[in-house]
């Protein structure tokens, strides 16, 4: 139970943050000004999340916060207390295989963020009732591929998921 | 940087009465400044993230939609009943960045950030939104249309927190929204407009063409009087009374004025038989 006195102490210095990071309970003390992006990269040893623009435009730093993609450069680290964060390190090679196969990556700067949003879309085919793949991927800028490879990779994932589901329904 | 962490709305109001603090919701506007700007570090912030149970839910009734202080764009996009009752909210929410911003950004934060280019504000204003400002002294209701006094100047006292945004339910026979940016997605608005028509009359709201998001009363009168309009140029005299666009890094005054007249003309032409 957090008391007012505890919080007064916290406002004078570091804030203790306990979160579920890639499925494991993790604690870290952060300065109130620190961004989630920096805490992941420089304190928690997860440099897979990249900084692109640092102002929420490019999506390279995309992570999941309570299951939804967010720009980790725009999340104050102290705000993830008690929450669930997943980074690109949580993805398996199989989960990014279609992106590799479709030429969704060239220079690689945007890839960790692209892979995170792409995987979120692939896991939630119901989103396609309201949005197109391109709309859902619009928060991830890529200056190399022209996006076609990215969209193809996501569509291949969705097709594979639909096939698995159909097979499950038959058996 | 000093961050205050209230555990309830009551405590938040007490802290706001005692400290000059900037409320933080999703942080999508505030965090842009945090890495570089020293001023951002000298401020005291009031974090609202522990108040989600109290401030995030939205309620749709027969009378109104009430958005909480922490209701996000994504929350609205995920609610089919809200999308049906207030379709322009969904149009605007889709234009506020992509999922990464929609998941974190809040309607109240968009109002309080007071950007003239805010994408969420025009549609709220076109639906006659009323802000509920809470403080230790009680609650004050302020219509959004009279909330802004000038650039980043609001009728919100430092000790007041936007607790909710109330949109009355009406029967609309016209609801229209347009945003013009440098690209289709993830772009800041160069020119934007939201228009509604109900028994309460016309509401024409523009953004990025004045120091604040604003109603366009001259254009509203022109439409209410069914004044014949032969082309975009016929809207310009009224528009010039209502808006005052400037040249800045994103566009020019001349472009903004011309494009606003064009998007309004082509957007409303089918619904207005007196447009030729």
Which short descriptors sum up this protein?
heterodimer; A: 171 residues; DNA polymerase, domain 1; B: 276 residues; alpha+beta; Uridine Diphospho-n-acetylenolpyruvylglucosamine Reductase, domain 3; Enolase-like, domain 1; five-stranded antiparallel beta sheet; 14 strands
> Quick one: which chains have the greatest interface?
A-B, 38 and 32 residues
Average pLDDT of chain A works out at 92
- The number of domains of chain B is 2
Give the tally of β-strands of chain B.
14
State the end-to-end distance of chain A: 49 Å
The 3D shape of chain A can be described as globular
Mind telling me the CATH superfamily name of the largest domain in chain A?
Answer: Beta-grasp domain
Q: Residue share in helices of chain A?
A: 25-40%
Radius of gyration of chain B: 19 Å
User: Rg of chain A, please?
Assistant: 18 Å
CATH topology of the largest domain in chain A: Ubiquitin-like (UB roll)
CATH architecture of the largest domain in chain B: 2-Layer Sandwich
Helix proportion of residues of chain B, in percent?
25-40%
Tell me the β content of chain B: 25-35%
Q: Oligomeric state of the chains? A: heterodimer
CATH architecture of the largest domain in chain A: Roll
**Helix/strand-derived class of chain A?**
alpha+beta
Run of helices and strands of chain A: HEEHEEEHHHH
The outline of chain B comes out as globular
Mean pLDDT of chain B: 96
* Largest β sheet strand count, sense and barrel closure of chain B: 5 strands, antiparallel
